[in-house]
Amino acid sequence: MKAVLIIADGMADRPIKELNWKTPLEAAHKPSLNKVAKTGICGIMDLISPGIPPGSDAATLALLGYDAVKVYSGRGALEAIGSGLEVLAGDVAFRCNFATVDEKLVVLDRRAGRIANEDATKLTKSLQKVKLEKSQVKFIFNSTIQHRAVLVLRGLKLSTAVSDSDPEKVGVKVSEIKPLDKSPEAKRTAQILNELTDKFHKVLEVHPVNKERIRRRLLEANFILCRGAGTVPNIKPLSEEYGIKGVCVAAAALVKGACKAAGMKLINVKGATGTPQTSFMAKAEATVQALGANDFVFLHVKATDAVSHDGDFEQKIRMIEKFDGMVGYILDNVDLGSAYLAVTTDHTTSCITRNHEGDPVPVAITGPQVRRDDVGEFDERTCSKGGLNRIRGMDLMPILMNLIGKTKKFGA
Amino acid sequence: MKAVLIIADGMADRPIKELNWKTPLEAAHKPSLNKVAKTGICGIMDLISPGIPPGSDAATLALLGYDAVKVYSGRGALEAIGSGLEVLAGDVAFRCNFATVDEKLVVLDRRAGRIANEDATKLTKSLQKVKLEKSQVKFIFNSTIQHRAVLVLRGLKLSTAVSDSDPEKVGVKVSEIKPLDKSPEAKRTAQILNELTDKFHKVLEVHPVNKERIRRRLLEANFILCRGAGTVPNIKPLSEEYGIKGVCVAAAALVKGACKAAGMKLINVKGATGTPQTSFMAKAEATVQALGANDFVFLHVKATDAVSHDGDFEQKIRMIEKFDGMVGYILDNVDLGSAYLAVTTDHTTSCITRNHEGDPVPVAITGPQVRRDDVGEFDERTCSKGGLNRIRGMDLMPILMNLIGKTKKFGA
């Protein structure tokens, strides 16, 4: 028995007036998602708890079965290990954004117009040459996908108790990084970060790539915003927890990092970019193939979230329909007599507020031994009538693992 | 975006034979409550956890979003601060009842025939003159509404680890107050309370107000029952938790106290009495007005609970219908394009058992961005089919705050 958990990032939404008060998921044509619902058991799920908007990091830990409220140790380290950097004990890592600010450091765009990978890579090379005054601290900076980047600080006496420079909205000034407790470590870490941020800004402002971007009428990537100071979470690998061999098919660094922290193997898929241009089908094929030699595949698509943060619900419908095609390929190519397939999302991202929201998400599980219910459509409202009722994010993995016979009895 | 949370105390009930096995809420004519359900998202809610009958104090803390199981520190202090008394760190406060006992101290009525405010006030003046033997401990005693009163003990070496004198039923003897642990503080506090109870009884027995009550064929208020030893709970104000300005429209001291402990402003409404004779409309008007300058209004009506404890389900239906009119006024006078309105109750009070019960309560939320479901009636059974499914009391506030954009993301 095997299991596939398929996540379309930020796929759930709230009703939208222009869609006749449907959500994008309700409005989309999604025969394969509906087939999972129709042949399976459905429900709604609070990734963390009702009303609490989940960050993608905490939500992914929950989807892997961990109690995120207990084990969460910041986004940065997950993002860094997911991008291929090594994060050691004692390192403090950050998720960064290439962003556009004006001369007063007011944020104009938190994603520098969703800068292309090539430009970000060139800028990164120059940033890597910056020198810190305190030579006993090293930094490692790498860009990942589009505007996304990671920063690792390595050295003695560092702390995660520092605030973000990313204000997480536009039209306001970049935040100064401040210590969040009174320890000398926090003070020192904040100082180093402020110094680095400032030096990065100076490099980026005069960089030829940005001059060229201005000529091409693109937003300059003239600032590096940091957030989510973190260390590697202290979690038990899935192999130990459930005795399974699990693999991850994802492009987003954060998701790859969480899966790696859970001891899963990462499968690199050509054409999987973590953007709306990603190759859905290549990921579907990789998933089917990976299932041969493994017990569990965690398949993640980022595209649905990216368009939600841009407020583009028409595009979101299109991404959901592409995602549906991917689910269809998997349904057609996996033996559902010996495999379970679960479909869900890591959070609601509202195209209206353009933020993660605390509304529950739909979830459906199909496979040979589920208690099939009478839900026939996969969406936020129909799934709320399903046989799973309302569960927590951290419940899904044990449910799946139990279906494939991999959970341990509690008690004797 | 603003939010109103409207509570009809003890409104939920169990099926009643004389109502053709409907609950009072199912039997009532309630067009406005049904409108909230029809235009909103519905569900059922366990204030504490399934099957556990919530005290009004713990339930109100849960409704304000707190984990009552963790923060609950007794009823007394909430009741006392709600009645306008100051409760300091180290003080131990009690909820008290004017009650009727016979010569053997058997409780005949726990509410002295729901004694009128004027009589209680006169009796209180005499009780305040009682002197304690241990002069280093002071007491403050005040009546609030009808039979309700509060007592605060102030001094060093006091403890909340004392039992109640209120047996919470009639036909049995008043309970002796006993220490609940082996500390000298608990022993001392119990001694002081027993002394005070005894002295109060001696004053009340011969009081002219009681002689007059006997002439008027009313029950004597000849005993003060104490319960719910408590200190002020250690909770984060709503302003810090959600960054909101919240106000409370309530008459019941306990509810006012919980809201005050949560850092909310109390609005005094003329004609709001906490009894079935309260002015529902004055409260509705105060709520609409308060919403202008605030983010959140907590509106509470006690009348529905009072009649339930008396087992009067016909009267309960009438109270629910009055409450419905109040909700109607708010629906008509609040802009539902920019406000969310939630309606619920703090617990089930059974007209048959005349007690708080552990059955879940119905809840409905309406407003611009809710995932409207197909529930069209606001009652215990129909709401159980709604899109919220089954939530906990402490979940409602985060859900509401998320809808108005006031929750913080967990994770990054």
Q: What Rg of chain A, in angstroms, do the CA atoms define?
A: 21 Å
Mean pLDDT across residues of chain A: 96
Structural class of chain A: alpha/beta
| Ends distance of chain A | 24 Å
Count of β-strands of chain A: 15
Multimer state = homodimer
Strand content of chain A: 15-25%
Q: Count interface residues per chain for the largest interface.
A: A-B, 39 and 27 residues
Shape of chain A: globular
- Residue ranges of chain A: pLDDT <50 for 5 or more in a row? none
Order of helices and strands of chain A: EHHEHHHEEHEEHHEHEHEHEHHEEEEHEH
Q: How are the strands ordered across the major sheet of chain A? A: 9-8-10-1-11-14-2-15
Strand count, sense and closure of the main sheet of chain A?
Answer: 8 strands, mixed
Helical content of chain A (DSSP H or I, runs of 4+): 25-40%
Helix tally of chain A equals 15
In brief, what are we looking at here?
The structure is a homodimer of 412-residue chains. Chain A has 412 residues and is α/β, with parallel strands linked by helices.
Describe this protein's structure.
The structure is a homodimer of 412-residue chains. The first copy, chain A, is α/β, with parallel strands linked by helices and 412 residues long. Chain A is 35% helix and 20% strand. Chain A is built from 15 helices and 15 strands. Chain A has helices at residues 24-27, 31-38, 56-63, 68-71, 76-82, 117-127, 184-205, 208-215, 238-242, 253-261, 280-293, 303-309, 313-333, 380-383, 393-403, and strands at residues 2-8, 40-46, 92-101, 107-109, 138-143, 148-154, 223-230, 246-249, 265-267, 296-301, 339-344, 348-349, 356-357, 361-366, 389-392. In chain A, the strands form three sheets. The first copy, chain A, has an eight-stranded mixed beta sheet, sandwiched between helices. In chain A, strands 3, 4, 5, 6 and 7 form a five-stranded antiparallel beta sheet that branches. Chain A has a two-stranded antiparallel sheet with strand order 12-13. In chain A, strand 12 and strand 13 (356-357) form a beta hairpin. In chain A, helix 3 (56-63) packs parallel to helix 15, helix 11 (280-293) packs parallel to helix 13 and helix 12 packs antiparallel against helix 13. The radius of gyration of chain A is 21 Å and the shape is globular. The two termini of chain A are 24 Å apart. The mean pLDDT of chain A is 96. The A-B interface holds A 14-15, 21, 23, 44, 48-59, 68-69, 72, 74-75, 95, 164, 227-228, 350, 352-353, 356-359, 380-381, 384-385, 389-390 and B 369-373, 385, 387-392, 395-402, 405, 407-412.
